[in-house]
Design a protein that fits this description.
globular; 3 domains; alpha/beta; Isoleucyl-tRNA Synthetase, Domain 1; 492 residues; five-stranded parallel sheet; RNA-binding
Length: 492
RNA sequence: GCACCGGUGGCGAAGUGGCUAACGCGCAGGUCUGCAAAACCUGUAUACGCGGGUUCGACCCCCGCCCGGUGCUCCA
């Protein structure tokens, strides 16, 4: 099944297939590790995750590279303020970022590339640009890209720069540039700042050059897909194209994917608005990692997503329905055989969900057939018409769905536990939601003992004592479920 | 200002030039239960921003307007 994916460069849906017939080579812009990742960051990484998982599921191999920007103005500023090296400053944030990805079940790319470990590659590229007449050095030792050397500039973001006059907005500290829109390739060292001594002088890389250098290092001069948040389209990606193609004269990336920004409570997320959330903030409030994942992927990546707590609750409940159903299939007893209607329903659900994803990763549409199948199967179970062969067929559809969505398999306890641990270390115990504390306040054994006592009380028809125990547990976030097979309990 | 995206039932969110406009959440009723909860089933609201136009026929195409959002070299 071929993925039809919107291509910013062509402005239409294009087939996404490996140009070499082997693996799809993709580069996705990663984080600048100067702070903890927020949900907006993760929406983008989750969208790319859905893409790669769909490709893998449908039999396309993937070679996925993601950069870690571990040197830039903010990092230098913050590290200097803290009196430590930039490496010492960024390391914990990089680690936190990778932990957050794991919590959200974002698959790790085949290759992570740190900017600071690829300085020679960047220098080499700048030298080539200089040789081609597309780069020049200013008096202070910085290097700039000469926009005039790349007539196609603007082809990605569809900007027509011809009408823009030079000199209209010249920053005071950039007076040396030939043209106001020329952008920095290499920034000359300033006293006290981190810098590298190289053939093009002492300094540090500009922001854009790292992606060009590292993408070419791992994927070649021309590759299949480049992805990132919509904000990166201009100028970052436009600049990457200019830098790369001025040297190689080949198409840098054939396909460009941009993920729409999200809103929080209907407004742009920002610290000053007070609607800025990191993943850790949400975990500490008691929301499950799976719910956050579901909420962030349920709206197709090109649509604006309005992130709300109501939305998280909805996602939580929707996942619960799927998990309960899955358990019902796995634990029930079903007679041998197959029900043709259910076999057909399973087949249709599988086909429909994949078809929806293949259409520009329409995750919202992809959910529908799965829920249709859940209802049909539940009805059949109630009527005794679901057979063992149907159970197997339906479980395999759920497994396939989970290869992409990955929300049914429950591994929510670990990220929450880690977040609490982190909060304690970071002196943020106060941010841990009380119900999370309650959930962990009783051991499994203690709960089992209370449940047993309640069962005994019920048998003796001492319902007031039984209800009392149930209420006490409920206050601590322990939910009891009576069934004919005994009592089940779970932490809310 | 220029450019782009969106406005679908209580909420979220698909989709289509004409058949009953998905799905999820919520809500209501039922089954079950000592009662609940949970789970499941059923039902639910006669939803396509406004005004024109094209068409045999538009929520879907075109024009205008209103509203919301975003971008225009910090930003996933």
């Amino acid at each position: 099944m071929t993925l039809r994916l919107f291509n910013t460069l062509s402005g239409q849906l294009d087939d996404l297939v490996p140009s070499d017939g082997k693996a799809l080579r993709m580069y996705a812009c990663g984080p600048t590790v100067y702070d903890f990742g927020h949900i907006g960051n993760f929406r983008t990484f989750l969208a790319v995750d859905i893409l790669r998982r769909f490709l893998l599921l449908t039999g396309t191999k993937v070679r996925h590279v993601m950069n870690i920007t571990d040197v830039d103005d903010k990092i230098i500023r913050n590290a200097t303020a803290a009196g430590i090296s930039i490496g010492a400053y960024t390391a914990p944030f990089e680690l936190a970022f990778l932990e957050d990805l794991e919590a959200l079940k974002v698959q790790r790319p085949e290759q992570l590339a740190r900017a600071t470990e690829h300085i020679p590659k960047m220098v080499e590229l700048i030298q080539k640009l200089a040789a081609a007449g597309a780069a020049y050095q200013t008096e202070d030792g910085s290097w700039y890209f000469r926009l005039a050397a790349f007539p196609e500039y603007g082809k990605l973001s569809k900007k027509d720069l011809s009408g823009m006059e030079d000199g209209a907005r010249v920053d005071v500290d950039e007076y040396e540039k030939d043209s106001a829109r020329d952008f920095a390739l290499w920034k000359a060292a300033k006293p006290g700042e981190t810098s590298w001594d190289t053939a093009i002088g002492r300094g540090r890389p500009g922001w854009h050059i790292e992606c060009s250098a590292m993408a070419m290092e791992y994927l070649g001069e021309s590759f299949d897909l480049h992805a990132g948040g919509e904000d990166l389209m201009f100028p970052h990606h436009e600049n990457e194209i200019a830098q790369s193609e001025s040297v190689t004269h080949k198409t840098f990336a054939r396909h460009w994917m941009h993920v729409r920004f999200l809103l929080v409570d209907g407004r742009k997320m920002s610290k000053s608005e007070g609607n800025f959330y990191t993943l850790r903030d949400l975990l500490l409030k008691g929301y499950k990692a799976s719910a956050i994942r579901m909420a962030l992927i349920s709206v197709p990546y090109r649509h604006q997503l309005n992130f709300t707590f109501d939305g998280l609750i909805e996602a939580t409940n929707a996942i619960e329905r799927l998990r309960t159903f899955s358990q019902r299939l796995k634990t029930g007893n079903y007679a041998p055989g197959e029900n043709p209607a259910l076999q057909e329903a399973a087949k249709k659900a599988q086909a429909d969900y994949l078809a929806a994803l293949s259409n520009d990763l329409n995750t919202a549409e992809a959910r529908a057939p799965i829920f249709d199948l859940v209802r049909a199967a539940n009805t059949a179970i109630d009527q005794g018409q679901l057979l063992a062969g149907d159970r197997d067929a339906i479980l395999s559809v759920l497994a396939s769905f989970d290869k992409v969505f990955d929300v049914i398999q429950d591994s929510d306890a670990e990220p929450t536990r880690k977040a609490i641990e982190w909060a304690v270390q970071a002196g943020r115990e106060a941010d841990v939601a009380p119900e999370l504390v309650g959930r962990e306040s009783l051991t499994d054994e203690a709960i089992d003992a209370l449940v047993a006592e309640r069962t005994l009380a019920k048998r003796q028809r001492n319902f007031s004592r039984a209800d009392q125990i149930r209420n006490e547990l409920a206050e601590k976030g322990i939910i009891l479920e009576d069934s004919k097979d005994g009592v089940r309990w779970k932490r809310k």
